[in-house]
Amino acid sequence: MEEITAFYDLDLEHDRLSRGLGLLEFARTLDVLGRLLPEPPATVLDIGGGTGAYARELLRLGHRVHFLDLIPGHVERVRADPALAALASVTLGDARALPYATASADAALVMGPLYHLMAAEDRAKALAEAARVVRPGGLVAVTAIPRAAAICGDFKHGLDEEDYSRAIRERAYTSGLYLNPEGRPGFFTTAYFHHPADLEEELGAAGLRDVTLYALEGPASKLLADPALELSDPLRRDGLLTALRLVERDPALLGMSAHLLGVGWR
């Protein structure tokens, strides 16, 4: 975990969802969650919440939000942010051992930890914990990165470091293991990339029912030259989001999205 912590200590996460393709990931995640979360006020656990982007929106909607993250710098940012002062709690903690009581929340969002847990047993622990802390009928929602994302990302952004990139993307696709052995800038840190069917199986193994996968960015992650431009114009934004809703559950397109949202109910 040391290289993962070092990567996030670079403080790259605080504005990731406010630029580039992160804008579309953020908009689409809120779009899908807006259809699935209970009406406010609900108790929502933001597990692996980064620097509070989703927590801020959940508070704005009127939910009672508990925040947890493994990275000390993220927790410090959240505690210092006046816009997050209404959080019910802010905890430095691990998704595999949640400090919340059983059946104490209406929803648990695991928006990142799953792709930094390399071992299957660790992912199973995190999912079991998320399922434990929501009430019967409660929602568990997790984000994952599909295996093909390493291939699609390389070919969209160029092949200037092809000798280095090739082994990374081929390993990620064939095994799920994304490794940046030299820690080169511009590459991700140690991560696990899912095949969509494996994500669905892991959610089901945690005892969740009605498991559904959503492609967040879908084909737009490969086709949009300027996500900010598309999302800043109301008409173009509506057209883009409407199109992505149309294909969001198409099994043939799940693997080409930059991120998946997997959901299930306890």
Mean pLDDT: 93
Q: Which sequence of SSEs, written as H and E, runs from N to C?
A: HHEHEHEEHEHHEEHEHHHE
The CATH topology of the largest domain corresponds to Rossmann fold
Strand residues, percent: 15-25%
Can you walk me through this structure?
The chain has helices at residues 2-8, 21-36, 53-61, 72-80, 120-133, 149-157, 162-175, 196-205, 220-223, 227-232, 234-247, and strands at residues 43-47, 64-69, 89-92, 105-110, 134-144, 177-178, 191-192, 209-215, 260-265. The protein is an alpha/beta fold and 266 residues long. The chain has 2 domains: 17-145 and 195-265, Rossmann fold (3-Layer(aba) Sandwich), CATH 3.40.50; 147-193, no CATH class.
Core attributes:
about 270 residues; alpha/beta; Rossmann fold; two-stranded antiparallel sheet; about 20% strand; globular
Write the layout of secondary structure elements.
Layout: H1 2-8, H2 21-36, E1 43-47, H3 53-61, E2 64-69, H4 72-80, E3 89-92, E4 105-110, H5 120-133, E5 134-144, H6 149-157, H7 162-175, E6 177-178, E7 191-192, H8 196-205, E8 209-215, H9 220-223, H10 227-232, H11 234-247, E9 260-265
Parallel strand pairs: 1-2, 1-4, 2-3, 4-5
Antiparallel strand pairs: 5-9, 6-7, 8-9
